[in-house]
Amino acid sequence: MIYFTSDTHFGDDRLNLYGRDLVCKTSEEMDNLIIDNWNSIVTDDDTVYHLGDVAMNEESLKQVLKLNGKKILIKGNYDDKIADEVLLQYFSAVHKNLVVEHGAKSIPQKLLFLNHYPTKADDMMFNIVGHIHGLWKVQRNTINVGCDAWHFKPISMDLVLFSINGINKFYDQNVFAGEIIANLKYAPKESLESIKTLIS
């Protein structure tokens, strides 16, 4: 199986920034919850693409050793602070971004663009991103795999494809409320112009 996740933030004491203080009292509790959830579904035969912001420092990066599966890192802003040589002690490969093919015949977008930042999405492919923790799960051409958005668990390729199918066939403007004219009133002008182009 293939899984995706991001923003585990191992060793991060700022639990209140992401609402994690509603779930755990300490960063140690949070780390253990993420590790237990990961290992409850990921086996050593599986591959997990981690879309960045693994840990706060080299010491907390050691938590990765407790995680099942082959792990591939797409670097986030916190990972840029750690040398690639160090990251490669914990990950099979380290990339700035990566393109993978999913192989599902029922979905026209065959390529997935893996990148930490939603603002660096590729409009020619479907995007898998992180960075924003649990702020949102889906946009028209993007899924956020931040662990905060998915009950602190990696999500499977099957769930990603299920979500893409929903976006393509079933989700309506209620899902993408940011495109509703009434909600555009307070958008910055440059954002407004790009949104108007999308919906025209």
Structural class: alpha/beta
CATH class of the largest domain reads Alpha Beta
Radius of gyration: 17 Å
Report the CATH superfamily of the largest domain.
Metallo-dependent phosphatases
Main sheet record: 5 strands, mixed
What string, H for helix and E for strand, traces the elements in order?
EHEHEHEEEEEEEHH
Summarize the structure in words:
The protein has helices at 27-41, 58-61, 84-87, 157-169, 189-199, and strands spanning 2-5, 47-50, 70-74, 93-95, 98-101, 111-114, 126-129, 138-139, 142-144, 155-156. It is α/β, with parallel strands linked by helices and 200 residues long. The chain has 2 domains: 2-169, Metallo-dependent phosphatases (Purple Acid Phosphatase, chain A, domain 2, 4-Layer Sandwich), CATH 3.60.21.10; 173-200, no CATH class. The model has no long low-confidence stretch (mean pLDDT 92).
Which helices and strands occur, and which strands form pairs?
Layout lengths: L1 E4 L21 H15 L5 E4 L7 H4 L8 E5 L9 H4 L5 E3 L2 E4 L9 E4 L11 E4 L8 E2 L2 E3 L10 E2 H13 L19 H11 L1
Parallel strand pairs: 1-2, 2-3, 3-4, 6-7, 7-9
Antiparallel strand pairs: 1-10, 5-6, 8-9
Short description:
This protein has about 200 residues and is of the alpha/beta class. It has five helices and ten strands.
